[in-house]
Amino acid sequence: MTYFKNSLFPFLFLLIVGICASCQKQKESDPNAPKKVAVIVSTLNNPWFVVLAETAADRATELGFQATIFDSQNNTALETDHFENAISSGYDAILFNPTDADGSIANVRIAKRADIPVFCMDREINATDAATSQILSDSYAGCVAIGKYFVEKLNKEGKYVEILGLVGDNNTWSRSKGFHSVVDHYPGLQMVAQQNADFDRNKAMEVMESILQVHPDIKGVFCGNDGMAMGAYQALVAAGKAEQVMVFGFDGASDVVTSIEQGKILATGMQFPKLIARTAAEYAKEYFGGKRDFAQKVPVTVEMVNQENVYEYEAYGSK
């Protein structure tokens, strides 16, 4: 049994090498074939990531490449399958939205060993020597702005709740840290609950329902994305507390932009997924043209949207 385990690893290594060599031969045999770009995203069960994926694929197509979208369904194992498929099928670059900051590193390293560049979009991995470049929303700074507005609207006092996203996603903690870097300086503001809802609208609604049973007197809710903000708002409406509790989100989703216009949601952090996705596709083109000196992390500004400036924005961007 021990011998079998030990002998399996060199076999797998040789198999991967063989696959990569085969793919390389196919490319060399048809040098005029269009480059193939894999767009691997964490989930397509969230409109924000649908926009990210489709924009990346569309821009890659505009640039003359073949593009295919792969949905990891927030599952690192499925993400691994997609990377193996991309390598064995001879893809030339991967535009990547990671499932997990730590768990996705191995997949990026596998692609790097196969000489396939990986450009991370929005979510980062906790390594600076694996991806070719990481194009990331400046979530921390965006939530500093939201934190200041939160303090202002709650008049520096009252109980509040924070609903977090996926615990394995660095964006979850960047947003939380940015928010708390401001709010924690005001002792009159008391966080009575902090729970994760995995960036999921339905889960956030359930979390908010449970919290309200224990803390019916909260004044504000800060949510790590707009899907959760809408879920929390639904729970508040059902409890008859939508007028008493202020909800703050993050993303710039269509329904939240509309809700801000209607005075239901107080504010959100507008991300720019289309800009991130187009940049990743254009970086792939530059890589194919011979460029190698990409910045490891490329921050993309997040802008706060509230009732005062909402007319300047639409879903996932400026008008």
UniProtKB/TrEMBL annotation:
Domain of life (superkingdom): Bacteria
Signal peptide: 1-21
Protein name, per record: D-ribose ABC transporter substrate-binding protein
Main location: other
Keyword annotations: Signal
InterPro entries registered for this protein in UniProt: Peripla_BP_I, SBP_2_dom
CDD domains in UniProt: PBP1_TmRBP-like
Compartment list: Cell envelope
UniProt similarity note: Belongs to the bacterial solute-binding protein 2 family.
Domain Periplasmic binding protein: 37-291
